[in-house]
């Protein structure tokens, strides 16, 4: 047998398996049978892809090491994710968020296939078929009976060498933000649009703050509390249909079906030395079934975003203090 043939078969079948399920589970007519934003797709499908890859590799390499099982199983994952980007099935944000889970569970699948091949010589093809069918059998149960939702708050603070009244002036209305003011961050690297400016139609409770981001993203923040030089909180008013499709991946679109910020706020405390501690928090709702995995990404992204915004407020407030 051509020793390269199992490699090509394993990669090709793994990619084809992943793409087929990705396309089928996006169809509205099959919504009750599966979905992309499910445990079945995020964790079980890459397990199968890795299993397929190592199953065929074992036909020519009987004694794969553990490291080889782990790393060889990544090959079809990379091609699969590349294919979803090229075909516009997914954007950079979803691919970046899915990659760690896909790599881990494909490795688990690959190791499982390797050790099954080593210690159980019979009915290997039947085992492969059973593994391949598992996500298809479990997905209908998940989408119809498992509804996990969580709400949590992300909070960050920064010390600013400026008095509270100067810091306060930076919060409600934010003049045009230059790219170098935000710097390079995780959110910018994975394709999340960056803020451009914010404006307000009035001061006080009930006023509306308009946030404008890159790629045409615009949403409202309705002021819910207003204490001069101390506190400004708001609730998000986001029309997901008004956000351009090319701005955010549809599975992580703000105000969408799976993920959205609910409320947020800035809080100012003056230190004994006259400096200001500015705190920014955002409360999010997560309607995926991904549990801790989804929360880790949500906290990572919003902490990164908060950090960039707080640095912007610090820089601008301290410049005002120096020049005044």
Topology:
Layout: H1 5-24, H2 39-57, H3 66-72, H4 74-86, H5 92-119, H6 124-145, E1 150-160, H7 164-168, H8 179-182, H9 186-189, E2 195-200, E3 208-213, E4 218-227, E5 231-237, E6 259-270, E7 276-286, H10 292-323
Antiparallel strand pairs: 1-7, 2-3, 3-4, 4-5, 5-6, 6-7
Helix pairs in contact: 1-2, 1-4, 2-4, 2-5, 2-6, 3-5, 4-5
How would you describe the overall organization of this protein?
This protein is α+β, with helices and mostly antiparallel strands and 324 residues long. It has helices at 5-24, 39-57, 66-72, 74-86, 92-119, 124-145, 164-168, 179-182, 186-189, 292-323; strands at 150-160, 195-200, 208-213, 218-227, 231-237, 259-270, 276-286. Strands 1-7-6-5-4-3-2 form a seven-stranded antiparallel β-sheet. Helix 2 (39-57) packs across helix 4 (74-86) and helix 2 (39-57) runs antiparallel to helix 6 (124-145). The longest helix has 32 residues, at 292-323. It is elongated.
Q: Helix and strand succession?
A: HHHHHHEHHHEEEEEEH
Termini gap: 80 Å
Query: What general form does the structure show?
Result: elongated
User: Could you tell me the mean pLDDT?
Assistant: 92
Low-confidence stretches: none
What is the total tally of β strands?
A: 7
Q: How much of the residues is beta strand, in percent? A: 15-25%
| Overall radius of gyration | 24 Å
Structural class: alpha+beta
How helix-rich are the residues, as a percent range? Answer: 40-55%
Major β-sheet strand ordering: 1-7-6-5-4-3-2
Q: Tally the helices: what do you get?
A: 10
């Amino acid at each position: 047998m051509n020793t390269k043939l199992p490699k090509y078969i394993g990669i090709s079948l793994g990619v084809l398996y992943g793409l087929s399920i990705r396309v089928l589970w996006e169809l509205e007519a099959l919504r009750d049978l599966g979905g992309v934003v499910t445990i079945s797709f995020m964790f079980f499908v890459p397990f199968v892809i890795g299993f397929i890859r190592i199953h065929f590799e074992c036909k020519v390499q009987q004694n794969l090491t553990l490291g080889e099982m782990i790393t060889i199983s990544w090959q079809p994952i990379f091609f699969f994710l590349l294919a979803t980007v090229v075909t516009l099935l997914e954007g950079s944000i979803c691919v970046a968020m899915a990659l760690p889970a896909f790599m881990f569970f494909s490795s688990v699948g690959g190791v499982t296939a390797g050790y099954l091949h080593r210690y159980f010589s019979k009915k290997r093809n039947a085992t492969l078929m059973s593994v391949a069918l598992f996500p298809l059998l479990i997905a209908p149960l998940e989408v119809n009976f498992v509804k996990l939702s969580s709400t949590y708050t992300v909070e960050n603070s920064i010390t600013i060498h400026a008095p509270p009244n100067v810091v306060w002036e930076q919060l409600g209305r934010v003049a045009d933000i230059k790219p170098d003011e935000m710097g390079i961050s995780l959110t910018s690297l994975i394709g999340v649009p960056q803020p451009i400016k914010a404006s307000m139609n009035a001061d006080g409770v009930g006023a509306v703050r308009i946030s404008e981001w890159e790629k045409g993203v615009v949403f409202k923040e309705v002021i819910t509390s207003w204490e001069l030089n101390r506190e400004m909180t708001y609730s998000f008013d986001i029309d997901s249909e008004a956000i351009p499709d090319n701005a955010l991946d549809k599975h992580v679109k703000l105000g969408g079906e799976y993920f959205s910020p609910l409320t947020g706020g800035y809080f100012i405390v003056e230190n004994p030395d006259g400096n200001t501690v500015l705190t920014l928090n955002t409360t999010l709702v997560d309607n995926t079934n991904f549990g801790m995995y989804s929360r880790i990404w949500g906290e990572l992204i919003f902490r990164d975003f908060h950090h960039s915004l707080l640095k912007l407020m610090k820089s601008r407030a301290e410049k005002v203090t120096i020049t005044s």
